[in-house]
Amino acid sequence: MTLKDTAEEWEITATATPFTGNKTSVRTDDVVMPGGGVATRDYQVHPGSVAVVALDERGRVLVINQYRHPVRHRLWEIPAGLLDIPGENPLHAAQRELYEEAHVKAEDWRVLTDIYSSPGGCDEAIRVFLARDLSEADGERFEVDEEEADMEIARVPLDELVRGVLAGELHHNCLVVGVLSLVAAERGDGLDALRPAGAPWPARPFEA
């Protein structure tokens, strides 16, 4: 049997948006259940995100460390950011985030994996890219502020990140998924067999 997620939408009898924030909102839907009853479901409406596993020639992954207020932690993460523009090409967004957060560019881009971050309570879709052939970006560094103002950047061997994930020391979802997917790809058909950077993404359709 081939396992594959499938698109499906149940009937909604009523909907409301009780909260709207700067980037996301909360929606309340009354959804018809298989037995005919109606259940209320609250969830965060999110524009979507991209993340980048940037792998250098020495087998190290570029990671950043910054404060995340909702969980009261400084987390080690991979470069990531929101899809701020509706219909934006996710590759362009990923290239922008790698430049802004690390002042790095990459010549080889591929899709590592696509995920829903928390599908029981949020519609956020994330595309995780693999970036290789890294070099310093041209021009001046992007000026950061707020949580990113004291952000730390490091390049860490892949094996060390895997150890940290499995030891429960690294928790960010994009880092965990990205690192373990990279290992799986290396041990499977190889990194060159990954989907091209412009592969379709039904969860967040975009223009080429």
TrEMBL record:
Pfam family, one: NUDIX
Keyword Lyase on entry: no
Family matches, as InterPro entries: NUDIX_hydrolase-like_dom_sf, NUDIX_hydrolase_dom
Keywords of the record: Hydrolase
EC number(s) recorded for this UniProt protein: 3.6.-.-
Domain Nudix hydrolase: 44-178
Alphabetized GO MF terms: hydrolase activity
Name assigned to this protein: NUDIX hydrolase
